[in-house]
Amino acid sequence: MHTSGTLYVVATPIGNLGDITQRAIEVLKSVDLVAAEDTRHSGQLLARLGIPARFVALHEHNEQQVAQRLVADMQAGKRIALICDAGTPAISDPGTLLVAAAHAAGIAVVPLPGANAAVSALSAAGVNAPHWLFYGFLPNKAVARSKALAALVHLPYALVFYEAPHRIVECVAALAASLGGTRRITLARELTKLFESIHSLPLAEAVAWLEADLNRQKGEFVLIVEGAPEVVVDEDDARLRDTLAVLLEELPLKQAAHLAARLTGLKKNVAYELALQMRDADAEKT
Ligand code: SAM
Fold first, then answer.
1. How far apart are the CA of 279 and the centre of ligand 1, in A?
2. In degrees to the nearest 10, what's the CA dihedral of 34, 39, 45, 47?
3. How far does residue 86's CA lie from ligand 1's centre (Å)?
4. Cβ distance 197 to 190 under 8 Å?
5. How many whole angstroms from 144 Cα to the centroid of ligand 1?
6. 258, 182 Cβ separation under 8 angstroms
7. What angle do CA 153, 88, 183 make, to 5 degrees?
8. Facing residues of 81 across strands?
């Protein structure tokens, strides 16, 4: 009779080799097979760590079939480690299908925590947000991206995105257009690497900041945008609402929000946020 194997979900560094954990090294050395997104890339990583390994490729195009094979291997007693190119598997990376298939087959799934770009960025961004939402990659196409952002615009949680260098300017411009220029964004770039940088500024200024120096557009990014400001309540809310209701009939949204803030003495971002909500509510009615 065979004893059932185990699936280890192993985080690897996001740049700095020193971030591999002791436990990850021990497990990667001892397993029968390492399932990796890009076996050449991971082969180099493990070679640098002095870990000999037998690889199987598991990526978004073959995960379903390979998962079935690996589950059969584990049912026959094999111990398998799942890794991705960088960071934690199954977080904006392949792995979910294999993990789910292992659970369904009653195989033990053991996480080995370690590097993750989103959590690293949040830990060093100084964003005062008790709650945050990990979004990962926004859609590439403009219309789909705006639609995705429209669903996030009112959430009072810090929003965490991943983005690649060739789309960074376009993505930040879209964030400013959809979420408003007053919220702050943190651009965390090349974390744990030589050119690591973490910079925060209002969304309205972010594209110009990126364009002022091409080096600022290079590398891998985590973007953190402050959550929607708390909407005012009671008397202030009613006063702002009444003022906006009149101004929005005559003026573009930004101008109406700006004037309403001046007239009521309330914050500009609060007026802007409420104006967005009122416009959306109106759009839903029509
Ligand atoms: N599974 C990974 C994790 O745990 O963070 C994420 C993989 S996802 C395919 C790759 C994206 O993560 C990059 O496009 C970038 O947005 C972000 N990322 C990865 N490494 C990073 C780093 N060193 N600095 C900043 N962002 C990084």
1. 35
2. 80
3. 7
4. yes
5. 22
6. no
7. 20
8. 8, 34
Contacts of 78 (CB under 8 A, 6+ apart): 5, 32, 33
> Within 6 Å (CB) of ligand 1, which residues are found?
14-15, 84, 86-88, 91-93, 116-118, 162-164, 188-193, 220-222
Q: Which residue ranges in the chain fall short of pLDDT 70? A: 1-3, 231-233, 284-286
- Helix or strand holding residue 209 (H, E): helix 203-211
Nearest residue to 21 (alpha-carbon basis) of 33, 6, 9: 9
Q: Identity (one letter) of the amino acid at 240?
A: L
Which residues, including other chains, have CB under 8 Å from residue 284's CB and lie 6 or more apart? none
Question: CA-to-CA distance for 32 and 200, rounded, in angstroms?
Answer: 45
Strands, DSSP E only, in 132-226? 132-137, 158-163, 184-189, 197-202, 221-225
Tell me what pLDDT residue 2 has. Answer: 45
Distance CA 35, CA 8 (A): 10
Query: Which of 84, 85, 92 has the most ligand 1 atoms within 8 A of CB, as the residue to mutate?
Result: 92
Read off the amino acid at residue 155.
L
Tokens encoding 231: 């909407």
Beta-bridge mates of residue 225: 159, 185
Residue 283: the pLDDT is 75
Interatomic CA distance for residues 206 and 176, integer angstroms: 8
pLDDT tens for each residue of 232-264: 667 778 889 999 999 999 999 999 999 999 999
Helices then strands, each counted (H, E), the chain: 11, 10
Atom 20 in ligand 1: residue holding the nearest Cα: 14
- Predicted local distance difference test score (pLDDT) of residue 229: 85
Q: Return the residue matching tokens 């050395």.
A: 29
Give the per-residue pLDDT at 285: 66
Q: What is the pLDDT of residue 233?
A: 62
